[in-house]
Model the fold of this input.
Amino acid sequence: MAKQSGRIRVLDEREPREGARYVLYLMQQSNRVGLNPALEYAVAEANRLGLPVVACFGLLDGANGFPEANARHYAFLLQGLADAAQGLRERGIAFVMRRASPAAVAVALAREAALLVLDRGYLSIQKRWYAEIAEGAETRLVQVEGDVVVPVETASTKHEFAARTLRPKLGRLMDDYIAALDPEPVRHRADALDLRSEIEIGDPDRVLAGMSLDRTVPPVRRFKGGETEARRRLAEYLAGPFKAYGTDRNRPEAGAASHMSPYLHFGQISPVEIALRVRAARVGGPEDKASYLEELVVRRELAMNHVHYTHDYDTYAGAVPDWARKALAEHAEDPRPYLYTEEELAEGRTHDPYWNAAQAEMRVTGYMHNHLRMYWGKKILEWSPTPEEGFARNLRINNRYFLDGRDPNSFTNVAWVYGLHDRPWARRPVFGTVRYQSENSLRKIDAKAYLKAVEKLCAAEA
Done:
């Protein structure tokens, strides 16, 4: 951990509380046991102080739930928490899960903690939780970054213009942070602690059934949540399909994607672990590995940079650059070749069979290939009455159906459709100088093969 001290921020510098019963870790973003710097920091401090470790999680549903989360998202989350709870028990770490906000759970349990360890998240709601904890928890408070390769502020102290401006900064730092983190044995088990967990996570389906939430978007069979499943999928991927990543990554029908994005979103696998395994993979050449790390580190952490340094990243006015809003405003009255309602878009009832297939894959299975996400988003802009309404539709549909929706990548990808991290292009109707994407872009893929693949995937969910 000392080698990566840049991951550690002390938010309250008071000394650890004397007479405490445990060291507390709020496991709210890094929902895993393996290669979890915040958890390992808590274990090291507990061993030093002669105390056990307690990990906690606050689960909200109903009107107070995580914004836009539905049964699909919660099912995947709960599966992952059940897996994490088992891993914690095996290490002798207690896991307490309660029906309250993460901040409320952490503040309550911190009353008997020597110190409180937080992981990191960059969305506004996560920052609000941390602020509430800092105000209410009267104990030593330490935050440890574990869900990016290079801590965001370490990589850059400002909002980056594009991938090309962030890439060299990450390139100078990432090798120092792509390093294994050996777990330290837990010297004082938490078995004797009498702490009440309001939610028994061993049966995630039962927990889900008892929650008040939107069930119109059901869980999917295509993806099962959890660290164990993430590692199984990654090992299977790196043993075969990865060998064609450099050449086939932009062909959704080719099966060259790793499908790690839902697991990264829920913190069920570390990006550092993925990077280590990609570098050590026996299949795939330098181009495959470099291309994958570009997506995993540069593109993903550009998104983290965007939401961290942009206050209103989920709004058209806040996320779309001035030049792009001006260009789109100049063409806001241009005739649209097609106009669809949001319901028609969500149900995939347009004139374009390939767009409809991409929407069906997302709506039914919770996933869409990145190459098609760009085409999908550009068409929503083109088929909406105004760019502002298009942006709102993009974000609502994205966050509703994607397993990895409501993520920094999602907010950034939607804003990219409208000009973020891009430059002016040749002027066109509707788009102005914002990048346009036509049906001709589908010529780069085997579109008919993709239609058949989606039909098969959707049938498996029925």
